[in-house]
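User: hey, got a sec? need Molybdopterin molybdenumtransferase folded
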Amino acid sequence: MTPVPWDEARAAAYRAGAAAARPAAEVPLAEADGLTLAAPLVTLTDLPAFPTSSIDGWAVRGPAPWRVVGRVLAGDTAPPLPDDGTCVEIATGAMVPAGTEHIVRVEESTLDNGLVTGQPRPNPEWRVPGEEAARGEELLPSGAPVTPGAIGLAASCGYDTVSVRPAPRAAVLVFGDELLTSGPPDAGRIRDALGPQIPSWLRRLGAAVDMSVGPVKDTLDAHVDAIRAALDSGADVVCTTGGTMHGPVDHLHPALAELGATYVVNTVAVRPGFPMLLAALPGGKFLAGLPGNPQSAIVALTSLVAPLLAGLQGRPLPALPTVTLGAPIRGRGSYTHLALVRMDGGLAYPVSHVGSSMLRGLAQSVGFAVVAPDTDGEKGATVPLVPLPMLDGERS
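Assistant: Yep! Here you go:
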């Protein structure tokens, strides 16, 4: 089977997810963090909705001195100033009374026997309606992630709920009789390094991980049973590790055939990680087959699972940032090379210990520099970067 070019595989995974994007749901603001807007966020009113004082001081009408006729605090409805020569004490955030010509700062004024004197500044000291946004203006597009800032913005507009795409639900199945789940490697068996980390990567990509099982025995029946159990648990995406080739204990392809799956992508022209796959299962579900070698599995995760989840959440396919190489990176012939890099002084440098079975380089990296087929990454070249999914503050 001819491997799919890497950029085409990434696009195909995204299209598959976008075509199966989860139905929108209306949720309270407090429950929306990390989800995705299913409709544009538009203002329900002008922001601010009424003229609002920017300072503590005196709202005045006409020339000084001004007779104090009241006080306006935040939350009050301000009556108009009745005549020239009158003023009201006003607090920051309070509604500016009709008829106000200036607001005099409290620290630049004098109150004596009920009369205020002071020198207004030339520019208005209040916010006007619509200064931040006009009623009906789009503030955030559909597909934008809901951040704490977005929640605060929605609240300021008057929203109690927002329309969002629910987080896709994911399950992780680790295949391999050779794997240990505790203790050091010994007697021909190795420690499972994917089961503990894949759920965390998936959560960083916006998925809710409900199930992580392994090791699953290296038999066809065990593979089929485990995948069915994951689907029955409600998973939208099942991520498996290992078994993506056609060796004597690689049962994933026969299991997919038994389950009635169709391939979205089956092997990708990328190194490391080319024996990756993405299959569509009946009922609008997906299975992502990640290779068993740890670094290859993360290449597959960022190449296929990340765009699939973006599509399922109704988000745009993430545009890849670019980096400038601080050292050369050799290409991999007709395959795209995804090379782990670290950042230093604004430049991207390849890291060591990057064999497909190694994780030391991965733990030191910010992502994969993309070296196109039939090219080398020359020092000083600008290339795309596939970022590792990280939380705020984790990037170096």
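Quick note: The domain at 322-387 is CATH 2.40.340.10 (Beta-clip). Let me know if you need anything else on Molybdopterin molybdenumtransferase.
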